[in-house]
Amino acid sequence: MNPAAVLALAASAAALPAGEGGAASLCGLCHPDVRVQYETSIHRSEEISCVSCHGGDPSAGDVAGAHGRGFRGRVRRAGIPDLCASCHADAGIMRPYNLPTDQLALYRTSAHGRLLARGDDRAAVCTDCHGAHDIRSARDPSSRVHSLNVPQTCARCHSDASLRAAFGHLGDPYADFAASVHGEALLRRGNLSAPDCSRCHGAHGAAPPGMGDVDKVCGQCHQTARYWFRTGPHATAMAREGMSECASCHGHHATAAAPVSLLETACSGCHAAGTAPLELASRMKTLYDGAGEEIETARALVDKAARVPLYVEDYRARLQEADTSLIESLPTMHSLDLSRVEHLTARARSIGREVQAEVNGKLGDRAWRRLGLAAFWFYLLVTVAILARRRRRWAGGGGR
Fold it and tell me: What would the pLDDT profile of 145-176 be if each residue is shown by its tens digit?
């Protein structure tokens, strides 16, 4: 673009009020790529202009004037948290949006904030996670900090092989998470109830959970499991041995689904064969397996009855109730209380048996009815055949 055209655009842009995009229009003459990003941002929609962060004179029509009067230019990485906090830590500014104002304080307690305070510019700052000019609301699915995108955002650093090596971190947490039961739910099924990185590590105050805090973190979602865990002997024993509560059995980022078969594999990691703890685990597994088998046997019978066809919707509803009872009983295994597990699995097992008995009764009644009907038709056909034969005989005799 020739100088005359630039001056003409600058003159028309200068006529715009600064609060309604004038600053962005002027700055965009020299920074068009930045302006394109800015136009999609939450700051643009809230009329936070370029000069709010970078300073300068939004009414000036030349570079020297625009870069005067408090112009900060590109903000150093170390200064970004304080710059963002100049608004986001101000209760008056944040009150209309109902946003928290303690995020800078939390950031300073985080692993990122402590690293930055030591002068290490490799530490993540606000713009690494939220973006710079194209910051979007966390509720926007295209935002870097939307729950579905948080794992990939964290992975930009935490899956970087060079950074992991520099800080002595082993493994790839993103790859582990993506393959986990949590990653499957969040990344593949889009279940926003599943945790992203920030749900376990925190957002602005991000840090690895302490050894004794893992059950608190997991307990945010798995409240019932945590309750039963704390009533059982493992809570005290693992704390005494300095073991990570939930993660010792279920893993960290690579958390797998927790089938009942885990009672056979996880327990043997600490307890020797033939010991009372393994015997207890085996007996609990037998109770869960037995209840599950009764339900599946009943479900197969209900499916068979449906093909007859018989009305089976009531039975399907009762089996759903049995499934729910069995699922609700699973967290109690953390208590290691066999009598409690037996009591809670008994309901699921009894529903399965009741449904089996009732469906078998209906199928049996139908079989007898079919047999009776077959006998009736056989008798009827034989009777008709005999009468027909006699009629022919009478007809023949009459003719002679």
Answer: 999 999 999 999 999 999 999 999 888 999 99
- The token pair that represents 173 in the structure block: 């947490």
Q: Which residues contact 137 (CB under 8 A, 6 or more apart)?
A: 42, 143
Q: Express the helix, strand and coil content of the chain in percent, nearest 5 each.
A: 70, 0, 30
Tokens of 218: 């997991």
The phi and psi torsions of 140 (rounded to 5 degrees) equal -80, 120
Q: What does pLDDT average to over the chain?
A: 88
Say if CB 159 and CB 174 are below 8 A apart: yes
Query: What is the rounded CA–CA span in Å between residue 31 and residue 132?
Result: 14
pTM of the prediction?
Answer: 0.78
Question: What pLDDT, on the 0 to 100 scale, is given for residue 313?
Answer: 94
**CA-based nearest residue to 173, from 148, 155, 146, 198:** 155
Q: CA-to-CA distance for 216 and 202, rounded, in angstroms? A: 13
Contacts made by residues 223-232, CB under 8 angstroms, sequence distance 24+: 224/328, 224/331, 225/331, 225/334, 227/331, 228/331, 228/332, 228/333, 228/334, 228/335, 229/334, 229/335, 231/335, 231/337, 232/334, 232/335, 232/336, 232/337
- Residue 226 to residues 103, 230, 383: CA-CA distances in angstroms? 28, 6, 74
**Tell me, what's the pLDDT at 367?**
57
Helix/strand/coil (H, E, C) string of 95-144? HHHCCCCCHHHHHHHCHHHHHHHCCCCCCCCHHHHHCCCCCCCCCCCCCC
* Model pLDDT for residues 243-270, shown as the tens digit of each residue: 888 999 998 899 988 889 999 888 998 9
